[in-house]
Design a protein that fits this description.
Helix content is 14%, strand content 38%. The strands form 6 sheets. A 5-stranded mixed β-sheet has the order 3-7-6-5-4, with no helix packed on it. Strands 8-9-10-11 form a 4-stranded antiparallel β-sheet. A 4-stranded antiparallel β-sheet has the order 12-13-14-15, with no helix packed on it. The protein has helices at 2-23, 40-64, 134-139; strands at 28-29, 32-33, 80-81, 89-93, 96-100, 110-116, 121-129, 147-154, 157-164, 172-179, 192-200, 213-216, 222-226, 233-238, 253-256, 273-281, 284-291, 303-309, 330-333, 340-351, 354-363, 369-379, 382-385. It is built from 3 helices and 23 strands. With 389 residues, it is mainly beta. The two termini are 44 Å apart. Strand 21 and strand 22 (369-379) form a beta hairpin.
Length: 389
């Protein structure tokens, strides 16, 4: 290795001296001329100094610029701006990141959107709907807003799935809206609602049609998973043309659940699992879910776990080999200090420079939910993220 480096250096010096010999007398570096009387040894020193200066300057510039490249040791980013977020999901269009989240009611738009150029600084940039679509209020009369959106891009459009429900019940529905762009300044910007995708009925279905997540296996195979409490996380094949459930494949896959000791209660007190999010990494599919309870302010106990499978339809198992359909799940993040409680309802952003875990956590004093983002590293085929401060 040392010999190769020495030979490379000599070759570079040879080319440099050749240029100097050819241009001697009128060569210049910026405004400084190279004199005929400069010896080759002196030129070597100059060349070395110049190269050293360029290297140091490059390192200085690199060190002063904030980069979105994930570092080896994961960390929770220090975010600024409009961070009051619940159930976040993220996507990038061109040079802008967009976060969609639960929200809306009588006094504000439905499904607020926040924007950032660097993942650190966030500003509000509109909402998806001014009010709930008519079909949603007819199906779920008690609904006041839309929950837990999911955003993906395929077939030339952004597909946003959203949930409509009432707290603690599985009389719920998942709807779909599309847009050609996420840039509100574009003339093509317009959200078009496509209505009902999945419906669950209280007293009939042992699953809850909220917390949707779209998985793109390839151009022909798209999947929608969802679920909260009851029988856990379910999944079905999607028609890529309509974005709705396949009419030719009605198989309902069960991906994850937690044990329930007795008969069902409303609101549910057992089987606390929800918010599925599936990604592909290496040769595996990874299913992230949130365990335990959200929405209790400082008393929230949300935490994120993960399992993996060779097949998108499962079975998913945790690091110990325990099936997620039997309550398995390897811990990804939980509250470790009084400052932040109940981190959960996660999403994953996969960037060329590395992956990020997006989630909300409740402030330890006010109990209000805020956006959190952590870099994520992979160790032995399993994800690891930073700890909340």
């Amino acid at each position: 290795m040392a010999r190769a480096k020495e030979m490379k250096y000599k070759e570079v010096m040879k080319q440099f001296l050749k240029i100097v010999d050819t241009k001697r007398g009128d060569s210049s570096l910026g405004q400084y001329s190279i004199s005929r009387s400069i010896a080759h040894a002196d030129i070597t020193k100059i060349f070395t100094v110049i190269c050293s200066g360029i290297l140091l300057a490059s390192l200085s510039v690199m060190g002063s610029c904030r980069s979105t490249t994930v570092q080896s040791e994961p960390q929770v980013l220090e975010l600024k701006g409009d961070l009051r977020v619940h159930d976040p999901v993220i996507i990038k269009e061109r040079n802008t990141y967009y976060v969609f989240s639960t929200g809306g009611g009588r006094r504000s738009g439905i499904i607020p959107i926040r924007c950032s150029k660097d993942l650190y600084n966030w500003t509000p940039c509109g909402c998806v709907f001014d009010k709930l679509p008519e079909w949603a209020t007819k199906e779920i009369p008690g609904a006041r807003g839309a929950w837990a959106p999911d955003i993906s891009f395929y077939n030339g459009k952004y597909h946003l799935y959203y949930s409509v429900s009432t707290f603690g019940r599985n009389n719920s529905a998942i709807g779909l809206a599309t847009n050609r762009t996420l840039d509100p300044n574009s003339p093509d910007y317009k959200w078009i609602d496509h209505g009902l995708v999945v419906r669950s009925y209280e007293g009939k279905d042992d699953w809850n049609a909220i917390d949707a997540n779209l998985i793109i296996q390839d151009n022909r195979n798209l999947w929608l998973c969802w679920g909260s409490f009851w029988g856990g996380i379910k999944m079905r094949l999607i028609d890529p043309e309509t974005g709705k459930l396949s009419s030719t494949d009605a198989i309902l896959y069960s991906l994850a659940s937690r044990p329930r000791g007795g008969s069902h209660e409303t609101p549910p007190a057992e089987g606390a699992i929800e918010a599925p999010f599936i990604i592909r990494h290496g040769g595996y599919w990874y299913l992230f879910v949130s365990f335990d309870f959200c929405c209790r302010g400082t008393k929230s106990t949300y935490n994120v776990v993960v399992g993996r499978s060779r097949s998108v339809t499962g079975p998913y198992v945790d690091k110990t080999g325990k099936p997620m359909t039997e309550g398995g799940g390897t811990l990804v993040i939980e509250a470790t200090t009084p400052n932040w409680r109940g981190p959960g309802h996660q999403a994953v952003l996969q960037e060329p420079g590395g992956d990020y875990l997006l989630f909300h956590a409740y402030h330890g004093e006010t109990g209000r939910p805020y956006l959190q983002i952590s870099t994520m590293v992979w160790e032995g085929g399993w994800p690891r993220v930073g700890e909340l401060p």
